[in-house]
Specification:
- With about 425 residues, this protein is an all-alpha fold.
- The protein has two domains: about 280 residues, ABC transporter involved in vitamin B12 uptake, BtuC (Orthogonal Bundle), CATH 1.10.3470; about 70 residues.
- The protein is about 70% helix and about 0% strand.
- The protein has a two-stranded antiparallel sheet.
- Helix 4 runs antiparallel to helix 5, helix 4 packs parallel to helix 6 and helix 16 packs antiparallel against helix 17.
- The protein starts with a helix and ends in a 20-residue tail after the last helix.
């Protein structure tokens, strides 16, 4: 008996080693990218790559993308594909501009979420109740939203004494409150002094901390906190388990008493509200609503969600990456050229990884593109303005192509569900 117990207590030599959690992987990946960014900043002599102003702009620009992606996450975890995120963001921008110029920032937030949720409600009625194809419904909402906001602007802002016109609202009423982290922003500007020294990694870390802690929009803090809250809600509560079960196998969930239709409606309403909130932040950046303000960020948010493998942590990393590319092209066109060196290094790493896995053709393609990108960085001093403007979208395509091999969407995502019917 004692011999048997000894055998049980001893772990087998062939037992698999514990794998790192997704959070640890994401943290290591971000740390590695930051080190590479510091190397590229030193090699290219482009301080804008890691300046506090770039990181501050990155945070502001990443928030709308992250919120749109978070909205897509809720919908798709419940089994509803939401291509209409862009249209819901458009509705959110108009609602924020209309309420914000009359009653201020808080009213803009509420109105933007309500308008976005209305777009989500329309999508839920079409897909959940009537069984319309999810892609068709989403595209229709994107087209419909543009026409609706144009009509509403004509009605609300034509001959408006406060200003505005058919394509924009009057300026928002009041200022959006900001906060700074006390320990890092009070007293002498220690982080600013470190940043100006341009030391390897130290100055870059100082620029990152200064950009993310000084004069931060209070609603940005709220939006960032939504990421861990969403993870807790979806993966640590009974509500989240029921919602995710609707996206994996709604027929099995229904047999266990989960109200599948209701959960899908709730998820898509939350999706629309979060996308609308992303539109609110775009209005806050410009202090005004303008037609075409979203600029495709709803689609980039959807790409960030896919890059994050339908998880909040990866989604946040993807949103930060796209926000950084967007901020950099606004801050310095010369620094965008330096990104070519970063892309060349990443592609070289991808080539080595593919070669290690025995995928020689993919490794060869990645190596060729790495060499070509490196040569382009050597010979180009300034990129055409049209290419610089396209940088965030190009980053989206590159990241999705690199991440496509490890993706796993919810099993019933996009499937038409009818109670009592088979798959």
């Amino acid at each position: 008996m004692s011999t048997d117990m000894t055998k049980v207590d001893q772990p087998s030599q062939g037992a698999p080693k514990p794998r790192r959690s997704n959070g640890v992987r994401v943290a290591l990946l971000l740390a590695g990218i930051f080190v590479l960014l510091s190397v590229v900043r030193m090699a290219s002599s482009q301080p804008a790559l890691t300046s506090s102003s770039t990181f501050s702009a990155m945070l502001i620009l990443a928030v709308p993308i992250g919120l749109a992606g978070l909205g897509g996450l809720f919908a798709e975890r419940a089994g509803v594909v939401n291509i209409g995120l862009e249209g819901m963001m458009i509705l959110g921008t108009w609602g924020a501009g209309w309420a914000g110029y009359q009653w201020g920032a808080l009213a803009a937030v509420v109105a933007g979420m309500v308008f976005g949720a209305l777009g989500g409600l329309l999508h839920a009625v079409a897909t959940v109740t009537f069984g319309v194809d999810h892609i068709v419904s989403g595209v229709a909402i994107n087209i419909l939203a543009e026409g609706i906001v144009r009509f509403l602007s004509e009605v609300a802002y034509s001959d408006n004494p406060a200003g505005g016109g058919p394509a924009q609202s009057p300026p928002l009423k009041g200022d959006v409150p900001t906060l700074s982290l006390p320990l890092l922003s009070s007293g002498p500007d220690l982080l600013g002094d470190l940043e100006r020294h341009r030391w390897f990694l130290v100055s870059d870390a100082a620029g990152l901390l200064r950009g993310l802690t000084v004069s931060i929009n209070i609603y940005v803090i709220f939006a960032v906190l939504l990421i861990p809250f969403s993870w807790w809600l979806l993966w640590r509560t009974a509500f989240g388990l029921r919602l995710r079960s609707c996206g994996e196998n709604p027929w099995a969930a229904d047999s266990l008493g989960v109200p599948v239709y209701r959960m899908k409606y709730i998820a898509v309403l939350i999706s629309g509200a979060l996308a609308g909130l992303g539109g609110v932040f775009l209005v806050f950046v410009a202090n005004i609503y303008r037609e075409g303000q979203t600029g495709g960020r709803g689609f980039i948010g959807l790409a960030a969600m896919i890059f994050g493998n339908w998880r909040p942590g990866g989604l946040a990393a993807g949103a930060g990456l796209f926000g950084f590319a967007d901020a950099l092209q606004l801050r310095s066109q010369a620094a965008v050229v330096a990104l070519l060196l970063l892309v060349a290094i990443v592609l070289a790493g991808v080539a080595a990884w593919q070669l290690r896995g025995g995928r020689t053709i993919l490794a060869g393609v990645a190596a060729v593109f790495a060499v070509g990108t490196f040569m382009l960085w050597l010979v180009v001093d300034e990129l055409p303005s049209a290419f610089v403007f396209f940088t965030p979208h190009l980053t989206t395509l590159l990241v999705l192509s690199l991440a496509s091999q490890r993706l796993r969407m919810p099993a019933a995502d996009g499937l038409r569900y009818r109670r009592g019917e088979d798959k």
